[in-house]
Design brief:
Number of helices: 5
Radius of gyration: 17 Å
Distance between the termini: 56 Å
Oligomer: single chain
Strand content: 5-15%
Largest sheet: 2 strands, antiparallel
Number of strands: 4
Structural class: mainly alpha
């Protein structure tokens, strides 16, 4: 697949913007992975996916462009695991880890040129985070409060 310089730039910018929008929501909620982190993850995933596509131009019968994307998915799981913290009998950071993984998926989709799927997924992620976050807190009987370091934590009522 021949990608023009313009198409590569568009894909990289779209991945960064969509991922950054998700990061804004995380930033507003004072979560560890904010705008820059999410934008970097989405942008990097798109770059690696585009690289996989470009490599097939050089070795079309030897390479599979999805191989790099599959390694991104595996690697991002490692990064997400680092966001999960277990302390005082509770596990924190699962939503952050899931968001990191989802943003990588958005970046991969954009890298392959699946703009509609990426836009819809980014919108659904934002709906889940913005709308369902407070509903989840209410159902789980928790509320978020700022600790002494300016970070939010959930507290049982």
């Amino acid at each position: 697949m021949d990608l023009t310089t313009q198409e590569i730039i568009i894909r990289l910018v779209v991945a960064m913007v969509l991922s950054g929008l998700i990061g804004i929501e995380r930033e507003v909620k004072h979560k560890p992975a904010g705008v820059r982190t999410n934008a970097l993850i989405g942008l990097s995933a798109a770059l690696m996916t585009i690289s996989g596509l470009l490599i097939t131009n050089y070795w079309p019968n030897v390479t599979d462009p999805t191989r790099i994307a599959s390694v991104v998915v595996q690697g991002i799981g490692f990064l997400g695991a680092g966001a999960i913290i277990q302390a005082s009998g509770s596990v924190r950071g699962l939503t952050t880890a899931a968001t990191i993984w989802a943003v990588a998926g958005v970046g991969i989709a954009v890298g392959f040129g699946f703009y509609l799927a990426a836009f819809i997924t980014a919108l659904l992620i934002l709906i889940l985070l913005v709308v369902f976050g407070p509903i989840d807190a209410k159902l789980m009987g928790t509320e978020e409060e700022k600790n002494g370091y300016g970070l939010l934590r959930r507290k049982k009522r």
